[in-house]
Specification:
This is Putative phosphonate transport system ATP-binding protein. This protein is of the alpha/beta class and 256 residues long. The chain has nine helices and ten strands. The protein has a six-stranded mixed beta sheet, sandwiched between helices. The protein has a four-stranded antiparallel beta sheet with strand order 2-1-4-5, covered by helices on one side. The radius of gyration is 18 Å and the shape is globular.
Length: 256
């Protein structure tokens, strides 16, 4: 099977400091990959490098688009990157306020991506917005309310709807459950697990929470000091960790 996203030797440096180094990655359609590690391990740098938000220093990164073309992501122009993000990719921010337009309604937040991909019929856009509010368990009566009046968990579900309404092939998520109460986090995790399975999404999720990784991920990538120290099937890595750092992480000895 041909991989959707492929990285080889991917390295990002900030001056003399290494963000991530010599990362090899293969992500397949319908697969959820979680990148875990403590703060400063390089997981967020890797995610932002994959999303083309941070320029890489060396290595290769390729993506197989919907037409079957192999795109060299590291040579893409900014307009090409923005087009890819509008049509085939999504990015869920850790803070939903960074991924939403807080000055427009919930319905407009979901509807705008549809307009950017060519939808122009107001009635159909509103219908799709209502449908996605229902999918992410938001009260459709609040479709005209602004996100500023929503709780943090509701804002995160709205951001997820905004990202998934165009049916992307790949979604990258940065700590999507961070800062949420345990009960809210549990509901959001159930939602993510259901949606990724239903839509056949490929996802790369950064998290420091082993419980999140166990619930959502097919495969796990463990990072320490910018390097991948262990990777494999989630249950395999968590139930029988081989690297000392992974063993400490799983036993919760390391701070998160």
């Amino acid at each position: 099977m041909k991989s959707l996203l492929t990285a080889r030797g991917l390295t990002t440096r900030y001056g003399d400091r290494i963000g991530c180094e010599e990362v090899n990655l293969d992500l397949y359609s319908g697969e959820v990959l979680c990148i875990v590690g403590e703060s400063g391990s390089g997981k967020s740098t890797l995610l932002n490098t994959l999303a083309l938000r941070v320029p890489s220093s060396s290595g290769t990164l390729h993506y197989s688009n919907a037409k079957g073309d192999a795109l060299d992501l590291l040579t893409m122009s900014e307009p090409q990157r923005r087009l890819l993000m509008r049509t085939e990719w999504g990015f869920v921010e850790q803070n939903p306020r960074d991924g939403l337009r807080m000055t427009v309604s919930a319905g407009a937040n979901i509807g705008e991506p549809l307009m950017s991909t060519g939808d122009r019929h107001y009635g159909k856009i509103r219908e799709k917005s209502i449908d996605w509010m229902q999918r992410v368990e938001l009260d459709v009566r609040r479709i005209d309310d602004r996100p500023t009046s929503f709780s943090g968990g509701m804002q995160q579900r709205l951001q997820i709807a905004r990202n998934l309404v165009t049916k992307p092939r790949l979604v990258l998520m940065d700590e999507p459950t961070a800062g949420l109460d345990v009960s809210v986090q549990a509901r959001l995790l159930d939602l993510l697990r259901t949606l990724t399975a239903q839509l056949g999404l490929a996802c790369v999720i950064v998290t420091h929470d082993i419980g999140v990784a166990r619930l959502l991920a097919h495969r796990l990538m463990v990072m320490q000091n910018g390097r991948v120290v262990e990777t494999g099937l989630t249950d395999q890595v968590l139930d029988d960790p081989q690297h000392p750092y992974t063993q400490l992480l799983v036993s919760s000895v390391l701070p998160t």
